[in-house]
Design brief:
mainly alpha; elongated; muscle protein; acetylation; Troponin_sf; single chain; Troponin; actin-binding
Length: 180
């Protein structure tokens, strides 16, 4: 039963596809026929049938008229092309403005690059880069002053010795005497 449903669905899909293709072909044929009729009407309207005169003089005049028409048509064609190029350029500019206003543009994928501050400044500023970004070189040298705690710690020395001195009655006696 499931395979029958699948076959029926596939057959229906193929039938619809072929029907759509036949419809599209007939529409294309109608369109080409309509274009051909339109072309014939345009030519009949704008290009009257050519009647060749018998004498040489009349023939030369006809040629001059045709050349004048060709020149005017060429000028029209050139003007139309220039207008088309101008409008195309305006359209592109407007599209670009619209694109910029929306602010939605595809950002390129960025890679992380390890770069020192000096290299970054050199890349941004080029040869103008004179500043050295080695911050430690610009620091002042400061001498460490001995604080009282550090002196006490130095005087104390080994802690085991200190503990032995203060242990027992002698240590208490020393602490008592020191307190006075």
């Amino acid at each position: 039963p499931l395979q029958k449903k699948r076959r029926a669905a596939t057959a229906r899909r193929q039938h619809l596809k072929s029907a759509m293709l036949q419809l599209a072909v007939s529409e294309i044929e109608k369109e080409t026929a309509a274009k051909e009729v339109e072309k014939q009407n345009y030519l009949a309207e704008h290009c009257p049938p050519l009647s060749l005169p018998g004498s040489m003089q009349e023939l030369q005049e006809l040629c001059k008229k045709l050349h004048a028409k060709i020149d005017s048509v060429d000028e029209e064609r050139y003007d139309t092309e220039v207008k088309l190029q101008k409008t195309t350029k305006e359209l592109e500019d407007l599209n670009q403005k619209l694109f910029d206003l929306r602010g939605k543009f595809k950002r390129p994928p960025l890679r992380r690059v390890r770069m020192s501050a000096d290299a970054m400044l050199r890349a941004l500023l080029g040869s103008k880069h004179k500043v050295n970004m080695d911050l430690r070189a610009n620091l002042k040298q400061v001498k460490k002053e001995d604080t009282e705690k550090e002196k006490d710690l130095r005087d104390v020395g080994d802690w085991r010795k200190n503990i032995e001195e203060k242990s027992g009655m002698e240590g208490r006696k020393k602490m008592f005497e020191a307190g006075e």
